[in-house]
From TrEMBL:
InterPro entries: C2_domain_sf, DnaJ_domain, Ig_E-set, J_dom_sf, Sec63-dom. Residues 676-686 have a biased composition (Basic and acidic residues). Residues 486-501 have a biased composition (Basic residues). Residues 526-552, 707-719 have a biased composition (Acidic residues). This is J domain-containing protein. SUPFAM superfamilies: Chaperone J-domain, E set domains, Sec63 N-terminal domain-like. It is found in: Endoplasmic reticulum membrane. One of its GO terms (biological process) is SRP-dependent cotranslational protein targeting to membrane.
Length: 719
C-alpha cells in the first residue's frame, strides 16, 4: 500500500532524480522574473483599495444623522401640538442649560434648540416645516467638481485644450484601433486566422496526409514567426546552430519549395519539433529556449487542426466539397498532440513515457516471463514482480517511475445509444437521429497497484451475483443442444490458457444464458419425452414465445396503472436532464482536469480527450470530435448522428483518444439494425369519415353542427 500512497502524489520533490523533471521545474521557477513583481503590485493595490474603502466607511459612519431628520417637538422635549406658551417655556429652560455663555453650554445643541423654537413659533417657518420638513423652506442640492485652479485660468486654456485633444482625439482612437486590429487577427481559440486559413488549404489539397506531413504544416504556423510572437527569437547564432541541428535530423525535408513550408522560420520550427520528438539535447541559452517557445504553442494549434479537418469532412458529407480529408488524417492530428506533449515519435513504445526508461531498457519488459507491452499491464503486475522487472533501477528511480505511472489515467467508458425523439427508442429506422450517450469515469492508474486476486475482485463486483444465479440452476444432467456439442471439446483443448478479466465476465454471462435455455428445454422434455435433438431449437423458440405471451398479458393487465407513473417518471427525468444541461452551459466549460506527467513539455499541461464516432468499414467520420476538457472524475457527453438511409445491419465505433498520453485510447463498437422507415400517411386519420358516420348524418335530418363554417355549407351544397 505504500506504493499506492506514493503514486497518488506527483510533485517535483518525488521526481527530483529525473533530470528532465528537474530542468522543467527549474525553468518554471525562473520563468518571467517580472511576474513576481507584477503580482506583488496587484496585491498591494488590492490592500490599498480595501484601506480606502474602510476609511470612507468610517467617515460615513461619523455623519450626524440628527440633521437629516429634524423634529422640533423632540428637540424641545414637548408633546406634539403643544401650545406656544409651553414651547417658549421649554425653550427658556434649555437655553439656560445649553447657551454658549453658560458653563454647560453647547453651541451646536443651542443652534438646534433655537431652530426648533423658531419652527414652532414663527408661522412661515412652521408652514415650511410642515410642507418641506425644514423651517428654512425647500433645500437646493447642488453638485460640483473641484478642479485645480490652473485648469480654469485663462492663460492655460490652450494647453488644456491641447491635452483634451491628445487624449480623446489621438490616444483613445489609437488604443481602440490597436485592440481591434489584434482581436480580429485571432479566432475564438486564440489562433491566428492566417494559420487557420493555411490549415484549410493544405488539408483540402492533400486529403490523405501522413503524420510527418502534418508536422511540416504545424511548423509553418504563423505563430512561429517573429512578427506574430514576441517570444520567438532570431539570433545570429541561428546561422550556425540550426544547420548543425538539421544535419542530425533525418527526413526533415528542408528542400520543400512550397510556401510557407520553405520559409526560414518554418524550417527552424520544424527542426525544433523533430529535435523535441527525438529528445535531443540542445544549447540551453539559445535553441532550448526556442524549443520551449515553439512546443508550448502546439496543443492549441493541433486542436485547431482537428477542428479544421472535421469541418472539411462534414462539408464533404454535405456535398459542398469535392475532396474529403480521410479519417487517417484526422487521427494523425490527434496522435501528433500526444507526440508533442510526451516528446516521443508514434512508432516508439508507450513505456518510454515513464521516467528513467530508455530504448536500452525496453529489453527488460520483453522477457519471456513478463511480456509487458503497455502501461496498464505494468500497473497490473504484483509489486514484487514489478520490482523484479525493473531491477536495473535503484530505489529512488523506481519510486519516480511508480509515482508517474500511478498518476496516469484509467478511464472506464460506457455507451448507451437510442432514438430520443421516437416512442420506441431502441428501434432504429433509416434516417433517424441516433443519440449516443458516452459516460466516462476517470481514476488514477494506481488503483491497479495490488495483487492480481484483489484486482480481479474489484473488477468482478458482479461476479458473485452471476455465480449465485448459476448455482440456482438445477445441477441434474441436461441434454446438450445441437449448437453446444463441440463447446466442451474446444474448451478442453485450451488448458492452461489465461483469459483476460473482461473476457471471464462475458463467459460467465454466457454460462447463465445457456443454463437458463437448458432448463427451459428440460421442462419441455418432461412434458413430452418424444422430442428429438433436432427439434430442440423449435422447443426453445416455443417456450420463449409462450413466456412472451404470458408477459404480454401481464403487461396489458397492468398497463392502465403503470403507464401514468412511467410518463411522470420520464417527464421528471427529462426535466432534470434539461436543468443539468442548462446549468452546465451557464457555468461554462472548465479547462482544468488533471496535470499530465510530461517532463519534456515546457509548461503544465492539463489532460484532455477527444470523443467521436466512426464507421471503420467505410473509413468515415460520423460526428465531429468532442473536446473533453473537464474530465476530473465523471463526465457524460452526447454524440448525435444520422442513421444510414439504407436498411441493414451496421457496426460503428465510438472512439476515445487522449491528447496527452500514448496507450490509453479506447474504441467500443455499437451494433445497429437499421430498419426501413415507416411511410408517412397521406391523409390524417382524424380526417377520414366512415360510411356509418355519413348514414348517421343523413338520418339525423341533416342537422348542422354549431361549429360548421361557410365553407362547409358550400361543400355540402355541392355534394
Amino acid at each position: 500500500m505504500a506504493l499506492v500512497v506514493l503514486a497518488q502524489k506527483l510533485n517535483k520533490e518525488q521526481l527530483s532524480t529525473f533530470q528532465p523533471c528537474k530542468n522543467k521545474w527549474a525553468r518554471l521557477e525562473r520563468k518571467d522574473p517580472g511576474e513576481t513583481i507584477k503580482q506583488l503590485l496587484i496585491k498591494l493595490a488590492i490592500i490599498l483599495g480595501w484601506v480606502l474603502f474602510c476609511y470612507v466607511a468610517y467617515k460615513t459612519s461619523q455623519y450626524d444623522y440628527e440633521y437629516a431628520k429634524f423634529d422640533p417637538y423632540e428637540i424641545l422635549q414637548v408633546e406634539v401640538g403643544a401650545s406656544p406658551a409651553v414651547v417658549k417655556s421649554a425653550y427658556r429652560k434649555l437655553s439656560l442649560i445649553y447657551h454658549p455663555d453658560k458653563k454647560t453650554g453647547d453651541e451646536k445643541t443651542f443652534m438646534k434648540i433655537t431652530r426648533a423654537h423658531q419652527a414652532l413659533t414663527d408661522e412661515t417657518a412652521r408652514r415650511n416645516w410642515e410642507m418641506y420638513g425644514n423651517p428654512d423652506g425647500p433645500e437646493a442640492i447642488s453638485f460640483g467638481i473641484a478642479l485645480p485652479s490652473w485648469i480654469v485660468e485663462k492663460e492655460n486654456s490652450i494647453w488644456v485644450l491641447g491635452l483634451y485633444a491628445l487624449l480623446f482625439m489621438v490616444a483613445l482612437p489609437v488604443s481602440v484601433g490597436t485592440w481591434w486590429y489584434r482581436s480580429i487577427r485571432y479566432s475564438g481559440d486564440q489562433v491566428l486566422l492566417d494559420t487557420t486559413q493555411m490549415y484549410y488549404y493544405f488539408f483540402h489539397k492533400t486529403p490523405h496526409m501522413a503524420i510527418k506531413r502534418v508536422l511540416m504544416i504545424l511548423g509553418a504556423s504563423a505563430e512561429f514567426h517573429r512578427r506574430n510572437n514576441q517570444e520567438i527569437q532570431e539570433r545570429r547564432s541561428d546561422n550556425t546552430e540550426v544547420p548543425q541541428l538539421m544535419k542530425r535530423l533525418p527526413q526533415l525535408n528542408e528542400k520543400n519549395k512550397e510556401k510557407p513550408l520553405c520559409f526560414m522560420y518554418s524550417i527552424k520550427a520544424r527542426s525544433l519539433l523533430h529535435a523535441h520528438l527525438t529528445r535531443l539535447d540542445l544549447p540551453q541559452s539559445t535553441l532550448e529556449e526556442d524549443r520551449c517557445a515553439v512546443i508550448k504553442k502546439c496543443p492549441a494549434l493541433i486542436q485547431e487542426m482537428v477542428v479544421c479537418v472535421s469541418q472539411l469532412i462534414m462539408l464533404a458529407h454535405a456535398g459542398r466539397l469535392s475532396r474529403m480529408p480521410s479519417l487517417v488524417t484526422l487521427e494523425g492530428c490527434m496522435k501528433l498532440s500526444a507526440m508533442v506533449v510526451q516528446g516521443l515519435w508514434e512508432c516508439k513504445s508507450s513505456l518510454l513515457q515513464l521516467p528513467h526508461i530508455t530504448d536500452e531498457n525496453l529489453k527488460y519488459f520483453s522477457s519471456k516471463r513478463y511480456q509487458i507491452r503497455s502501461l496498464e499491464q505494468l500497473a497490473r503486475l504484483k509489486e514484487e514482480d514489478r520490482r523484479a522487472c525493473l531491477h536495473h533501477l535503484d530505489d529512488n528511480q523506481y519510486n519516480d517511475l511508480v509515482a508517474a505511472l500511478g498518476g496516469m489515467p484509467y478511464v472506464d467508458m460506457s455507451i448507451k445509444y437510442e432514438v430520443v425523439d421516437d416512442e420506441a427508442t431502441t428501434v432504429y429506422t433509416a434516417g433517424a437521429i441516433v443519440t449516443v450517450t458516452v459516460a466516462l469515469a476517470r481514476r488514477d492508474l494506481s488503483v491497479l497497484f495490488a495483487n492480481e486476486k484483489e484486482v480481479c475482485n474489484e473488477i468482478l463486483e458482479n461476479g458473485d451475483v452471476i455465480a449465485e444465479e448459476e448455482e440456482k440452476v438445477p445441477e441434474t444432467k441436461k441434454k446438450s443442444l445441437p449448437w453446444q456439442k463441440n463447446k466442451g471439446k474446444r474448451a478442453n483443448n485450451k488448458k492452461g490458457s489465461k483469459k483476460p478479466v473482461k473476457k471471464e465476465i462475458e463467459d460467465k454471462k454466457k454460462i447463465v444464458q445457456v443454463a437458463t435455455s437448458k432448463a427451459i428445454v428440460k421442462v419441455k422434455e418432461e412434458d413430452s419425452e418424444s422430442c428429438s435433438e433436432d427439434e430442440a431449437d423449435d422447443e426453445v423458440e416455443l417456450c420463449e414465445s409462450e413466456e412472451g405471451d404470458a408477459e404480454a398479458e401481464e403487461k396489458s393487465a397492468n398497463n392502465d396503472s403503470s403507464e401514468p407513473e412511467k410518463d411522470d417518471d420520464q417527464l421528471e427525468k427529462l426535466q432534470s436532464d434539461v436543468a443539468m444541461r442548462r446549468q452546465r452551459l451557464l457555468e461554462g466549460k472548465s479547462q482544468f482536469s488533471h496535470s499530465v506527467y510530461c517532463p519534456f513539455y515546457p509548461e503544465d499541461k492539463q489532460e484532455y480527450w477527444w470523443a467521436y464516432i466512426t464507421d471503420r468499414k467505410q473509413q468515415m467520420l460520423l460526428t465531429a470530435p468532442y473536446h473533453i476538457t473537464n474530465l476530473v472524475e465523471h463526465e457524460e457527453i452526447q454524440l448525435k448522428f444520422t442513421a444510414p438511409f439504407k436498411p441493414g445491419f451496421y457496426t460503428f465505433a465510438v472512439c476515445l483518444r487522449s491528447d496527452s498520453y500514448f496507450g490509453f485510447d479506447q474504441m467500443k463498437d455499437i451494433k445497429m439494425d437499421v430498419k426501413e422507415a415507416a411511410e408517412i400517411p397521406t391523409e390524417h386519420p382524424q380526417w377520414e369519415i366512415s360510411d356509418d358516420e355519413d348514414e348517421e348524418d343523413k338520418n339525423s335530418g341533416g342537422s348542422e353542427s354549431e361549429f360548421a363554417t361557410d365553407d362547409d355549407d358550400e361543400d355540402s351544397g355541392k355534394d
